[in-house]
Amino acid sequence: MERKMDKLDIPPIPEFIEMIADTGAGIYACKASVDLFELDKDDLVEQVQDIITVGEFYAHAAGGQIIFT
What we know:
It contains 4 helices and 2 strands; from the N terminus they run H-H-E-H-E-H. The protein has helices at residues 4-7, 13-22, 31-36, 54-61; strands at 28-30, 50-52.
């Protein structure tokens, strides 16, 4: 059975993250989620630039276009 993601022509998550990083977009992890799951930066993919709060995220994104939150 074909997966739903394949039907949507969306690349696998690792490839998708790489594509986003290659555009120069910033990739950040949500501090609340990281804390909830007891993770740290070493647990995340290398493209994650930092672990930030939602307030810090909106400060980084000021004047820019927010696509995924």
